[in-house]
């Protein structure tokens, strides 16, 4: 019964956010902070899932310049956990098929996010090349999930290199954002589903990397994030 009630309430809330967010973003058309505002609206829904989410930011959070943020992509609960970490003047890169998701697709488009056609490799490479231009021309940051798909309990999947090529081309740092494991930890029939920790790590300078060793950068970031996720999981386990 609790699960059905939660699904109903969350569905209504998500539709309202999408509709009101679309109107809000239309009024502020192409404002680069729309994405972050909508992400925080969704992030505030976490109590409906019985979750307590802790957000951790570096001390330099208010001094961060344009960057490429990379996060671990676990499941649909990312919408109410790690999404809250999206900063102002940050847009995300998502698969082209998102435009067809009822209510959400139009919101995703009108807030200024960037669509990626994964089935067309030439277009996908072109999109990555354009990111550097947008970062510098529009003073934007970009949010990406370098795994390319939800991990669904398989741990942190190998990273694709698109985000790292874009960071090197634009000359901006990579900022990893990690969320503790939520796979198989949330039971919608359970009132209290515990703690989730989302943490933004310090910026990683990419000036020592080039397209020739971009895979080394991707591997370094992957290992750093994997280690930190394990540490957060251990911290939560000790607190329970």
* Percent range of helical residues: 40-55%
Shape descriptor reads globular
Order of helices and strands: HHEEEHEHEHEEH
Total helices: the number is 6
Calculate the mean pLDDT score and round it: 91
Low-pLDDT ranges = none
Beta fraction: 5-15%
Task: Report the strand count.
Answer: 7
Q: Structural class of the helices, strands and pairings?
A: alpha/beta
Catalytic activity: a 1-acyl-sn-glycero-3-phosphate + an acyl-CoA = a 1,2-diacyl-sn-glycero-3-phosphate + CoA
Pathway: Phospholipid metabolism; CDP-diacylglycerol biosynthesis; CDP-diacylglycerol from sn-glycerol 3-phosphate: step 2/3; Lipid metabolism
Protein name: 1-acyl-sn-glycerol-3-phosphate acyltransferase
Family: Belongs to the 1-acyl-sn-glycerol-3-phosphate acyltransferase family.
Question: Could you characterize the architecture of this molecule?
Answer:
Belongs to the 1-acyl-sn-glycerol-3-phosphate acyltransferase family. 40% of the residues lie in helices and 14% in strands. With 240 residues, it is an alpha/beta fold. α1 (2-27) runs parallel beside α3. The two termini are 26 Å apart.
């Amino acid at each position: 019964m609790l699960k059905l009630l939660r699904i109903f309430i969350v569905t209504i809330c998500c539709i309202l956010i999408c509709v009101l967010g679309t109107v809000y973003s239309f009024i502020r058309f192409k404002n680069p902070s729309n994405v972050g505002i909508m992400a925080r609206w969704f992030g505030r829904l976490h109590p409906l899932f019985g979750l307590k989410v802790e957000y951790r930011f570096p001390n330099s959070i208010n001094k961060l310049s344009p960057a490429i943020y990379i996060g671990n992509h676990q499941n649909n609960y990312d919408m109410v956990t790690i999404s809250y970490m999206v900063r102002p003047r940050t847009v995300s890169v998502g698969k082209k098929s998102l435009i067809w998701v009822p209510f959400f697709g139009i919101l995703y488009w009108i807030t200024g996010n960037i669509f990626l056609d994964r089935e067309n490799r030439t277009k996908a490479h072109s999109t990555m090349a354009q990111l550097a231009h947008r970062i510098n021309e529009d003073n934007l940051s970009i949010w990406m999930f370098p795994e390319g798909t939800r991990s669904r309990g398989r741990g942190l999947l190998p990273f694709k290199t698109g985000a790292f090529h874009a960071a090197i081309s634009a000359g901006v740092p990579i900022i990893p954002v990690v969320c503790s494991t939520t796979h198989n930890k949330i039971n919608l029939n359970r009132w209290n589903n515990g703690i989730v920790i989302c943490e933004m790590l310090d910026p990683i300078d990419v000036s020592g990397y080039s397209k020739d060793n971009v895979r080394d950068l991707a591997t370094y970031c992957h290992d750093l994030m994997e280690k930190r996720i394990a540490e957060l999981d251990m911290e939560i386990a000790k607190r329970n």
